[in-house]
Design brief:
Elements lengths: L3 H5 L5 E4 L13 H10 L6 H16 L3 E5 L2 H14 L3 H6 L9 E5 L8 H5 L3 E5 L15 H7 L4 E7 L8 H10 L4 E4 L9 H7 L4 E5 L11 E5 L1 H9 L39 H16 L2 H18 L4 E4 L7 E6 L3 H12 L4 E4 L8 E4 L9 H12 L1
Parallel strand pairs: 1-11, 3-4, 3-5, 5-6, 6-7
Antiparallel strand pairs: 2-8, 7-8, 9-10, 10-12
Helix pairs in contact: 2-11, 3-11, 4-10, 7-8, 12-14, 13-14
Bound molecules: pyridoxal-5'-phosphate.
Pyridoxal-5'-phosphate (PLP) binds next to helix 4.
Length: 393
C-alpha cells in the first residue's frame, strides 16, 4: 500500500481488483523480485550472457530448448513473427519489416483474431484468415478445421499463429500435425494462460515451435516483461533481432544457448525488435519471479487468493466466491446486481473514490462485477471491503 511516489507525482493510486491489465499498470511484484531488480541495476553485464541465463531458467520452467526475456508478450509475438520470417538470415533481419523475398504470411483462425495479433503485422507479417466461426446465424456448429488450415499453407506461409485458450479450436496438437507436415512453425500466444502453472510446459509439450507468456501477469514479474520460449534456432533469431550487435564481428561469440547465431553469414544491424528492448533489470526480475511462480504449490496459491477474497465476501451480502471459468485455480468474487445499469452505477462509484477501485467489468452486461485477487495488495483489503460495502450493498 505504498503509494508515496505516486502521491509525490500527483497521480491517484488505484486498488486493482480487475486483474493484471496493462492499462491498470499490471500487477504487483514481491519484495524478492524488486530486490533482485535493484541489485541488477547496480552492475553491468553483456546482454547476451544475461539472456543465456534467462534461457536456462525458461528452459527449466517450460521444457523448451531455449527462451529469452522480452519487454512483454506482445513484443515476444513481434519477435517470434520476425524469427519465423527471417530465420537465421541476417540480410532478411536487416530488411524487416520489408518482407520482399521472404515468406510473410501468418495463418490465423478467424475466431482467434484479437487485438494483440497486430504484433505480427508490426514485424512485417500479413495475416491470412481461415474458417467461419458461425456463432449467430443459428445453424453454425463448427469453427475452423485443421484441414482448412492445412489448405491455406503455401510457400508464402511464414507460420501459424494460435491463440491458446479454453475455447480455442481446433486443439493445438491437430494444428501442429498439419504444420509439421509442411515444415511451418506454430507460434502460440499464451500471454494470459496462467494459472494453471502446468500451462508453462503444456504448449511446448503439444509441439508448439514458439510460445509467449506475459511476465507482468500471473507470473508476478515486471510489468514490462515477457517470455519467448521454443526452438533454439527460432529463439536465437528473435534474440538477434532485439540485441544491439554493434561490435566488431570477430568479438561476438554466441553462448551455447543461442549457438545457431554463430552460423550467421554476418552480424545484422539493430533489428525490428530493438525498439522493444528488455533491460537487465526486467530480465533479472523476470527470472526471479518465474522461479517463485513455479516453486509455489498451486493449491497454496489458490488458498492465498481465496483468503484474500473471503473478508471481502463477508463484507457484501450476496457476494459469491466462484472459480474463474477459464483459469483453473483462480478464484473470483462475484458481485451480482439486478441489471446492467445497477452494476454500472456501482462500478462508476467505485472508480470515483480515492484510491479508485477497479473491478473486473468483463461481464457487466449481465449485471456482474468481479473482484480478481491477482493484483491485490493484502494491506488494501480493509479499505476495499469498506468501499464494496458502501457501493455494492
Ligand atoms: C496480455 C496479452 C498480451 C500482451 O502481453 P504483454 O505482456 O502486456 O505485452 C498478448 N496476448 C494476449 C492474449 C494477452 O492477454
Amino acid at each position: 500500500m505504498t503509494g508515496g511516489i505516486y502521491a509525490a507525482l500527483g497521480v491517484r493510486r488505484i486498488i486493482n481488483g480487475y486483474g493484471t491489465n496493462t492499462r491498470l499498470s499490471g500487477g504487483l511484484m514481491a519484495p524478492e523480485v524488486m530486490a533482485a531488480m535493484a541489485e541488477a541495476s547496480r552492475a553491468c553485464v553483456e546482454m547476451h550472457h544475461l539472456q543465456a541465463a534467462a534461457s536456462r531458467a525458461i528452459a527449466e520452467a517450460t521444457g523448451a530448448e531455449a527462451g529469452i526475456v522480452t519487454s512483454g508478450a506482445a513484443a515476444a509475438l513481434l519477435l517470434g513473427a520476425a524469427a519465423c520470417m527471417a530465420r537465421l538470415d541476417p540480410g532478411a533481419m536487416n530488411r524487416l519489416p520489408d518482407t520482399a523475398g521472404m515468406p510473410d504470411e501468418f495463418i490465423v483462425i478467424r475466431s482467434q483474431r484479437n487485438m494483440y495479433d497486430r504484433a505480427l503485422r508490426a514485424a512485417g507479417g500479413r495475416i491470412v484468415e481461415v474458417g467461419i466461426p458461425d456463432r449467430y446465424s443459428g445453424p453454425g456448429v463448427r469453427d475452423a478445421s485443421a484441414g482448412e488450415v492445412a489448405d491455406a499453407i503455401t510457400d508464402r506461409t511464414a507460420g501459424i499463429y494460435y491463440l491458446a485458450g479454453d475455447a480455442a479450436e481446433p486443439p493445438l496438437p491437430d494444428i501442429v500435425r498439419v504444420a509439421r507436415a509442411r515444415g511451418v512453425p506454430v507460434l502460440v500466444d499464451a500471454a494470459a494462460q496462467l494459472p494453471p502453472a502446468s500451462n508453462l510446459r503444456r504448449f511446448i509439450a503439444e509441439g508448439a515451435d514458439l510460445v509467449c507468456f506475459s511476465g507482468g501477469k500471473a507470473i508476478g514479474g515486471p510489468q514490462a516483461s515477457g517470455i519467448l520460449a521454443g526452438r533454439r534456432d527460432l529463439v536465437s533469431s528473435a534474440l538477434a533481432q532485439m540485441l544491439d550487435l554493434d561490435l566488431p564481428e570477430a568479438q561476438f561469440v554466441a553462448p551455447a544457448e543461442f549457438a545457431p547465431l554463430n552460423q550467421m553469414r554476418f552480424l545484422p544491424h539493430h533489428g525490428i525488435g530493438r525498439s522493444g528492448k528488455a533491460g537487465k533489470e526486467e530480465i533479472v526480475g523476470l527470472i526471479v519471479a518465474l522461479r517463485r511462480f513455479v516453486a509455489e504449490d498451486p493449491a497454496q496459491r489458490t488458498a492465498r487468493w481465496t483468503n484474500c477474497l473471503v473478508p471481502l465476501r463477508d463484507a457484501v451480502p450476496g457476494a459469491v466466491l466462484v472459480p474463474d471459468g477459464a483459469k483453473p485455480g483462480l478464484p473470483l468474487l462475484e458481485l451480482r446486481f439486478p441489471d446492467r445499469a445497477a452494476a454500472e452505477r456501482a462500478d462508476a462509484a467505485l472508480r470515483a473514490r480515492d484510491p479508485a477501485v477497479h473491478l473486473d467489468a468483463s461481464r457487466i452486461r449481465r449485471g456482474v462485477l468481479a473482484v480478481n485477487p491477482t493484483a491485490l495488495d493484502d494491506a488494501d483489503l480493509p479499505l476495499l471491503a469498506a468501499a464494496l460495502k458502501e457501493c455494492c450493498a
